[in-house]
Write a structure and sequence with these properties.
Blueprint lengths: L3 E7 L4 E4 L5 E14 L5 E11 L1 H9 L5 E14 L5 E14 L3 H4 L3 H7 L18
Parallel strand pairs: 4-6
Antiparallel strand pairs: 1-3, 1-5, 2-3, 3-4, 5-6
Length: 136
């Protein structure tokens, strides 16, 4: 079984193109954190190329942007090609069957405050800072 699920951030805006047969394809790179820290105590990430086709490709191109968190589901594919000089290149990528938004565009861009002010419950209660313990 060849199935992969990735959770990460877009490293740049998705690139949408059309093939000669007018099929839409979207490519992007997902930065996925490794589940451990290195010897220096820093977290490392893998940068994984992703390819989407069809309607999901259009959706990603129209609604996703750099820094946004996505969950991508698909399969791993390896392929080879020869360049103009005759050098063989090997490519490993995820061919995604779909994706889910983990956060909205406005959440990643700081637009969350505007939505909170429009809320009818915006003036209810007290905001608890993240660095303090919750009192229960």
């Amino acid at each position: 079984m060849n199935r992969v699920v990735l959770l990460g951030r877009l490293t740049k805006d998705p690139d949408v193109r059309y093939t000669q047969n007018q099929k839409v394809v979207c490519t992007f790179t997902l930065a996925v954190d490794r589940p451990f820290v290195n010897q220096d105590g820093k977290r490392e990430a893998d940068f994984i190329p992703v390819v989407l086709w069809g309607k999901p490709a259009e959706m990603a191109g129209n609604s996703c942007s750099k820094g946004q968190r996505l969950c991508v589901e698909g399969r791993i594919q390896t392929r080879t090609y020869d360049d103009e000089n005759g050098t063989r290149h090997y490519v490993t990528e995820v061919v995604a069957s779909g994706f889910d938004y983990i956060e909205r565009k406005s959440d990643s861009a700081g637009g969350n405050q505007a939505r909170q002010q429009d809320s009818p419950m915006a003036n209810m209660g007290q905001e608890v800072p993240f660095d303090e313990e919750v009192p229960f």
